[in-house]
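Recap from last week: sequence in, structure out.
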Amino acid sequence: MAVEVGKANEATIMLTSGASGRVSALFSLRVLRSLWLLLNAFLLLFLLPFRGRRRMAQEKSNEKEAEKVKMVERKGTFLRVPAKMVPWKSLVDQEVAARRALAIRRVLQDDDKETVREFSCFGTSRGDTMFTQSWTPATTKVRGLVFILHGLNEHSGRYNDFAKKLNASGLKVYGMDWIGHGGSDGLHAYVPSLDDAVSDMKQFLSKILAENRGLKCFCFGHSTGAALVLKASLDPKVSARISGVVLTSPAVGVQPAHPIFTALAPVVSFLMPRFQFSAANKEGVTVSRDPNVLLAKYSDPLVFTGAIRVRTGYEILRITAYLQQKLSSFTMPFLVLHGTDDAVTDPEASKKLYAEALSTDKNIKLYDGLLHDLLFEPEREEIMKEIIVWLSQRL
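Predicted structure tokens:
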């Protein structure tokens, strides 16, 4: 076992995220007054007089948008129709179709001669369709597998450069967009249950292993994706089939500003699960010190840049609380990497994971001054090399 601390050159912090890591912003003190007034209004106007008629209330709420019109493309022409004639689910389906088409187009347009990039979709037991993609070395013998799970509000395609670095080392890579993200089904950035995302991960992992028998498989997760990897690996059926995990900036420690918000979160997420707090946008946190990376990230249509949805925020609080109670149950070989200046997820929680996990093969690397999106920091080449060396030593 070894604990290492890496140092990075100083750099000026530039731009802000506006999307990642806004759980604290969602439950900030400034939002409390608005939240309390909103709850009282909702209880007085809707719950008491119309209890048991929640569906009717939702339909009336949808009718408030009747004045707006939506553009519906049909046979090359545009028809203007009232919004009430376009079901909410239909609008979400149209948005999903547009996201998926873009994700597919990016895969098909990748003409890298060293990598064979492909996409596929699979159906879940819930009836949702998940978008996945793979990167296979074109000229290098495949020695092992890496399954990538992206973080909140992003998608697997953002890890294209990292996947190709892994390919160059003989590692075939798979990525899955979890529910409500990238090319997968669901309202953008709305996660009704992270347990569903864990189940989807397990299902796709079984497919990967069935197609690549005899090869060792590792899981990589970033931020909330790392939390999904951790929770899945607590299942003995999963831990018996993978050879280790790599975690960058894992969402093991994400806490609201005041304990009262933890108590309110379940209620609000039940009453208004898709609701977004616009104030959260003003509490953006810088996730990288590379301005070009930030511009690329937040101009990407597949990256969600709106305010965090209430249920999504609650689900993150729920999974981090669960993991905090299970750290000593973690026995998989792992490498955890974290920037000391990460303002999204707590580096101290990664230290706690390292200290309490019962794994006999565990490593931690802390990068002085680095922020949340480690693979998109100026020092990303060094970080990718660290990961590849760790993986190669365990093939």
